[in-house]
Amino acid sequence: MYKPLVLIALTLSFVASAHAQRPEPATRCFTSPAVERHIESVAAKMTDVQLVTMFRQCFPSTLDTTVKLHGRDDTFVITGDIPAMWLRDSGAQVWPYLRFCKDDARLAELIRGLLMRQFRSILLDPYANAFNLDTTAMSPNWASDGTEMRPGVFERKYELNSLCYPLRLAHGYWQATGDTTAFRGLWLKTVRTILYTMRAEQRLGGPSAYTFLRVTDRMHDTQSNRGKGHPAKPCGLIASSFRASDDATVFPFLIPDNFMAVSVLRQTAHILRQANREWALADSCEALAGQVEAALREHAIVHTARYGDIYAFEVDGFGNALLMDDANVPSLLALPYISDVSTTDPIYLNTRRFALSDDNPYFFCGKAGEGIGGPHVGLDYVWPMSIVLRAITSTDEAEIRACLDMLKATDAGTGFMHEAFHKDNAADYTRPWFAWANTLFGELITRLAERGYKGI
């Protein structure tokens, strides 16, 4: 376990300057009175001055800086320093605000508008991961990719999680608001499109029609075999050409995404039965979830000498498995956060020990901190997101305390989370404006405050 050498290096003068980095009220993209009241309520209970500052800045970061409203049913949420909307990121960025929807009608309308934008985006192209604000514009970056690029698509990396996150957000929104008007024709078309795509990517009826090639000097930014990727033996799992990091999969069946798919398909079936009376479509969701769940039991578990049975990160159906974890969510570490896997599940606990050890090739430990990274930014870079998820999924008070200390010690004096920092030098970091990581940190503090954790 990482133990910071100095925990009081950041002084009150730093805290004051960091707090000033939140945009002035007049320049914020969106302000929610309910969120602001929550920030003040939680901050009043906290005793760690630096964590208070970081919470005040990070939790509202998505609303402050990334939201573009375009009418009642159109909200566009960028990732931060990239002016495109990822289905995954945007859904994750607003997720912690769902709890405030009943007390803030404008916030509920914002999230409803995001759902509508996500639904329309999926109908435009269920294989795309990111979209342009202007639905008539070709991608300014990736128009030359060897895949079927369309106007409105920013990037067309097929990721199973891109289909899962909107379903997760839809269920969360429905539970938070009781609003059934968001679940009509557009919703039903989207669900059918997602089901069709997931079934196609099970490849039970033959190879996928999806291909992706990019001229690049990074192996993880394109697919092998002329864009088809590594061969897959159909087994009931759903293939994913890219991970939540937007890096190419090595083996096509990405296990964390399949666990998430099982969860969100069952949540979708719940909406379809209660809000739509769409019994047959709900049964189709349940049937696919059951098929994937059975395939996970058969193909996702690998026995290791050191850890016992653990979940693989990727498999190919032929018996080959990749043992690692990546910081981006869905991940193996984050399974209890994004799926029905329990924090007490013995195989999850074994997998967690593996993921947080040097047997995971993308776990890095250095002078600045320790955590999980990934190929996206390269070796020796730890993602704060992995530290946050380590704390969220932990039941160990000492581990949570160590995670908080690391997050404080590795913000490079900014008061914000970043994409990644070098394990030996927190001042060497990537992406100063990464809203997902900021909001996720705020969710961690909220969770700890709600359960009366004394270390904040």
Description:
43% of the residues lie in helices and 10% in strands. The protein has helices spanning 12-19, 33-45, 49-58, 61-65, 87-94, 105-124, 160-177, 185-200, 224-227, 255-276, 279-299, 335-338, 346-355, 384-392, 397-409, 435-450, and strands at residues 67-69, 75-77, 85-86, 130-131, 153-155, 253-254, 301-304, 308-311, 314-315, 321-322, 363-365, 370-372, 381-382, 420-422, 425-430. The chain is globular and about 60 Å long. The protein starts with 11 loop residues before the first helix and ends in a 6-residue tail after the last helix.
List key phrases describing it.
single chain; 456 residues; mainly alpha; Glycosyltransferase; 2 domains; three-stranded antiparallel β-sheet; globular; disordered N terminus
Structure at a glance:
This protein is mainly alpha-helical.
CATH architecture descriptor text of the largest domain: Alpha/alpha barrel
Biggest β-sheet description: 3 strands, antiparallel
The first-level CATH class of the largest domain is given as Mainly Alpha
Number of domains: 2
Q: Whole-Å distance between the termini?
A: 19 Å
What fraction, in percent, of the residue positions are helical? 40-55%
Mean pLDDT: 94
**Are there runs of 5+ residues with pLDDT below 50, and where?**
1-20
Strand coverage percent: 5-15%
How many helices? The count is: 16
Shape descriptor reads globular
Radius of gyration: 21 Å
Given the helix and strand composition, which structural class is it? mainly alpha
Number of strands: 15
CATH topology of the largest domain: Glycosyltransferase
Strand order of the largest sheet: 3-4-5
